[in-house]
Design brief:
With about 220 residues, the protein is α+β, with helices and mostly antiparallel strands. It has twelve helices and six strands. The radius of gyration is 27 Å and the shape is flat.
């Protein structure tokens, strides 16, 4: 398999929604025609070989799905995931979504330091998290569902423990928005410079210092 096809396959695998040729081409910085040819080759390989995936076309977009022939065993897996206990990583991710949502996957990945694709998928399967489209930022964000809020016995997110404090945590803000940390650093530097300037002015005016020390 060529590197281009491998990259396309990876993108289709981790994406929870169909991807257009234009979107893939932009991410990979490759022309659309090369992406289209590679996708057609992938689709043919899935059809010809004994693979567990199929590539479907939805409008002008493509999505990687499981082979329908494996539907029964997949249903068994999903049933276990829906009813089984949540792992510690899943609880951590759910907590972040609850306190920081709506939040993008990239922000989640940055906070946890790992790829959260599979965890998000499982939380969505359980009906605890849902995806929403942010048309202004042209991205997918995640938030907890009303079912989860109802399950907690609260009526709104602000009723979560320490919600105001954790929702506006400064350390997280600096992690998600490095420009804020840079701005704070520049402000501190400016304060230090102003302080140094005042010291220089004071040192260059000995008479003023003497007057202050020996009042008439």
């Amino acid at each position: 398999m060529s590197r281009l096809k491998a990259k396309i396959e990876s993108l289709l695998f981790v994406s929870h929604k169909p991807l257009s040729i234009q979107k893939i081409a932009k991410i990979l910085a490759t022309d659309s025609e090369a992406i289209k040819n590679s996708i057609n080759e992938l689709a043919q390989e899935y059809e010809d070989g004994s693979r567990g995936f199929r590539l479907i076309k939805i409008g002008q977009s493509y999505q990687l799905v499981s082979d329908p022939a494996n539907g029964k065993i997949i249903k068994e897996l999903l049933k276990d995931e829906q009813t089984g206990e949540m792992t510690k990583p899943a609880l951590e991710t759910l907590t972040i979504v609850a306190y920081r949502g709506p939040i993008s996957k990239s922000e989640l990945d940055m906070i946890r330091g790992v790829n959260c694709s599979l965890i998000l998928r499982n939380l969505m399967i359980k009906g605890l998290v849902e995806a929403i489209e942010d048309k202004n930022k042209m991205q997918t964000d995640y938030r907890i569902t009303f079912d989860f809020i109802r399950h907690l016995g609260i009526t709104e997110l602000v009723q979560l423990p320490d919600y105001e404090k954790l929702n506006q945590n400064q350390n997280l803000e600096k992690l998600l928005h490095p420009e804020l940390a840079e701005q704070e650093k520049n402000e501190q530097l400016q304060q230090e410079l102003n302080k140094d300037d005042q010291e220089i002015i004071k040192d260059n005016n000995p008479e003023e210092n003497n007057d202050s020390e020996n009042p008439s």
